[in-house]
């Protein structure tokens, strides 16, 4: 928050020096009261948040120009802008800013649309819930100002705490997230405000307050997303955002938060998907090998120095295909998804092929390929993959996909039987195949990675994949997929310009960047983006014609043999010898669904009551993570999150709180219908292998 009249002239500077000296005198005059407030606050934090106490008990601020205004409020001179943090009345100024912010609130937003012609029960009930929403909203006026109760709020900057005081004086908040990069500001807040009523407001069941102090701007969003998993992602798209003051750190934190918003509101998963993953994983397990980490010494160190090309099917694959042919003998090639059909047309055989999408359509593309061609390739995937995938490859393997019910089943069952193997979960392997490819690169320990055709977007809606891919026939779209009517996001291009992409492409790029940040901490790791697509932070842009690979020729089969031996093992017998129904524990699943149908009675009349109920249900699901029934949490959490979000969206969208809440019970009733049906579907878990359709066979030019 900048001073409303920042000193610029010599006269103003002299005037400020006088005011500052007077302000220091006031601090000395009120030293005892300020010290008592500091000691009271520190004793409070020592009791309820000792980690904050420990951080500030010996803290020495670097910003020394703290002073007291005539009104009795503290102010801080900011050297970075050569102006005070506040005007001469900090509290009054803070109250004005908060009231202005509440009148025109800045909130996160998500709009879900109905999905037609989808076989899942999740989509059926989501569509039904949206139909009920459309009917129930009739006659209701839209909410304009921020209501008195806020489900979730994020403050970018605490400053000295005055705005936080003003905000909580007129708002009730369920989950409050406080980001303050400048530790000096928080330190001085211990003298400026009384923290006790603030912390007491969140000392009731279901209210949470989270401090992110001294955290780098990018790290804030990462930690915030972790906290969302505990508090419930369903509140993420209905969150009040407030910027307390402008600073490079706050600006960076906001920019990163916006850029990574898709990670908060996408990829929640849903019930049918999790059930399909269980069915397919259990059928696949006897026919492949399971990834196990045996330590870095299990693989000869020279293997890590072999350059790896991750090949996507984006339009820029065409620009670098001659380079791939030139260096083929010196590098390891990983093909991603539909890229394998394109490479076959171009006369290139990859060493490794990866796929992650669990639908049968994923494996239908192999029907266009000769078995002799596939026999030369190592097929890698994850434990939710369609079981037919592993039948196409002579050699195959799968790792575990985090957050999946099948992963929880395998791990819990193995541990229960005394199996201590370190089975691999590939973090950041979502949402598309390039993410899985990089996850395997991390597992295998490769040091040099080149991306080609991993565009995460396109410059022209008509040129969204390689012209040699199955998406085109005779230079025109084959009818398999088109982006002409898609809502697209603009992003900076790897070589400049603008790239357009979908939400899932954006999420893929964000996930690639997140894993790249980890890999860049590893000594000797380098990655290069040869793709004329979206820029990836942390990956060096490099034109294909500038690539210089001087490595010797490699024995590709030997490398694959070594990787297979070092990182894969036979699946646990304890899983193979039990039925899906016994593994899932259907009766325990039924008890949980019955619990989730309870609680919405005549006492639920406010937004706060709805949020409290949904939060309690979320916690009931969330706490299953630490039990032998972790897979039940994985089965339920996605569809619960979608349904809870639709309810939250409805009750906050309309001005008449009581009426909106009363009508929202009709949405909850639809969710209960779904919960009622779920146990019978779980009972039939082994039948939930995706049967697919003829869309790819009909339209894909494989």
Automatic annotation (TrEMBL):
InterPro entries: Maf_N, MptE-like. Residues 301-460 form the 6-hydroxymethylpterin diphosphokinase MptE-like domain. Pfam families: Maf_flag10_N, MptE-like. Residues 37-266 form the Glycosyltransferase Maf N-terminal domain. Coiled coil: none annotated. This is 6-hydroxymethylpterin diphosphokinase MptE-like protein.
């Amino acid at each position: 928050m900048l001073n409303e009249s920042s000193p610029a002239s010599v006269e103003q500077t002299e005037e400020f020096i006088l005011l500052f000296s007077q302000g220091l005198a006031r601090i000395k005059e009120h030293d005892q009261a300020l010290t008592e407030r500091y000691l009271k606050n520190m004793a409070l934090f020592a009791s309820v948040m000792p980690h904050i106490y420990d951080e500030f008990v010996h803290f020495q601020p670097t910003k020394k120009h703290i002073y007291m205004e005539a009104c009795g409020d503290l102010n801080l001179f900011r050297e970075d802008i050569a102006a005070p943090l506040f005007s001469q009345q900090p509290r009054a100024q803070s109250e004005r800013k908060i009231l202005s912010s509440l009148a025109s609130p800045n909130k996160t937003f998500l709009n879900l649309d109905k999905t037609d012609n989808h076989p899942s029960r999740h989509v059926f009930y989501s569509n039904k819930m949206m139909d009920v929403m459309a009917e129930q909203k009739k006659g209701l006026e839209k909410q304009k100002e921020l209501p008195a109760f806020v489900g979730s709020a994020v403050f970018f900057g605490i400053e000295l705490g005055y705005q936080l005081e003003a905000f909580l004086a007129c708002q009730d908040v369920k989950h409050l997230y406080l980001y303050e990069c400048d530790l000096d500001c928080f330190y001085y807040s211990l003298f400026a405000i009384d923290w006790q009523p603030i912390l007491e407001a969140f000392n009731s069941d279901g209210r949470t307050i989270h401090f992110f102090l001294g955290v780098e701007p990018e790290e804030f969003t990462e930690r915030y997303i972790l906290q969302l998993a505990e508090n419930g992602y369903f509140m993420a798209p209905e969150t009040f955002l407030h910027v307390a003051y402008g600073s490079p750190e706050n600006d960076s934190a906001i920019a990163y938060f916006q850029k990574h918003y898709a990670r908060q509101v996408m990829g929640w998963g849903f019930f049918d998907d999790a059930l399909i993953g269980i069915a397919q994983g259990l059928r696949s397990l006897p026919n492949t090998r399971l990834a196990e980490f045996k330590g870095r010494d299990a693989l000869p160190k020279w293997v890590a120095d072999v350059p790896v090309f991750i090949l996507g099917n984006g339009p820029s694959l065409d620009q670098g295909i001659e380079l791939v042919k030139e260096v083929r003998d010196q590098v390891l090639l990983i093909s991603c998804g539909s890229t394998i059909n394109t490479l076959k047309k171009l006369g290139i055989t990859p060493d490794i092929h990866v796929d992650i999408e669990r639908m049968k359509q994923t494996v239908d593309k192999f029907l266009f390929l000769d078995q002799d061609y596939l026999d030369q390739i190592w097929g890698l995937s994850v434990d939710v993959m369609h079981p037919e995938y592993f039948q196409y490859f002579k050699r195959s393997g799968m790792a575990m996909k985090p957050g999946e019910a099948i992963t929880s089943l395998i791990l819990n069952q193995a541990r229960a039987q005394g199996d201590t193997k370190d089975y691999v979960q590939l973090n950041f392997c979502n949402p598309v195949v390039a993410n899985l490819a990089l996850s395997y690169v991390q597992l295998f320990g490769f040091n040099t990675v080149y991306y080609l055709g991993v565009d995460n977007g396109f410059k022209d809606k008509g040129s969204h994949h390689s012209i040699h891919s199955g998406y085109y026939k005779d230079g025109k779209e084959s009818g398999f997929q088109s982006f002409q009517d898609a809502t697209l996001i603009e992003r900076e291009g790897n070589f400049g310009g603008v790239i357009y992409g979908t939400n899932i492409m954006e999420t893929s790029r964000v996930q690639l960047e997140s894993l790249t940040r980890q890999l860049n901490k590893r000594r000797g790791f380098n990655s290069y983006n040869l793709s004329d697509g979206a820029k990836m932070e942390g990956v060096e842009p490099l034109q294909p014609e500038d690539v210089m690979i001087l490595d010797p020729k490699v024995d590709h089969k030997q490398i694959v043999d070594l990787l297979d031996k070092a990182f894969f093992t036979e699946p646990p017998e304890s899983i193979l010898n039990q039925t899906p129904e016994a593994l899932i524990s259907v009766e325990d699943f039924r008890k949980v669904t019955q619990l989730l149908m309870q609680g919405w009675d005549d006492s639920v009349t406010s937004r706060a009551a709805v949020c409290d109920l949904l939060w309690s249900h979320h916690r009931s699901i969330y706490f299953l993570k630490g039990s032998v029934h972790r897979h039940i949490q994985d089965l339920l959490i996605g569809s619960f999150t979608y349904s809870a979000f639709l309810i939250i969206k409805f009750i906050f969208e309309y001005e008449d709180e009581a009426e909106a809440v009363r009508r929202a019970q009709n949405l909850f009733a639809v969710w209960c219908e779904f919960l009622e049906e779920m146990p019978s579907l779980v009972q039939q878990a082994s039948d939930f292998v995706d049967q697919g359709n003829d869309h790819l066979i009909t339209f894909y030019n494989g």
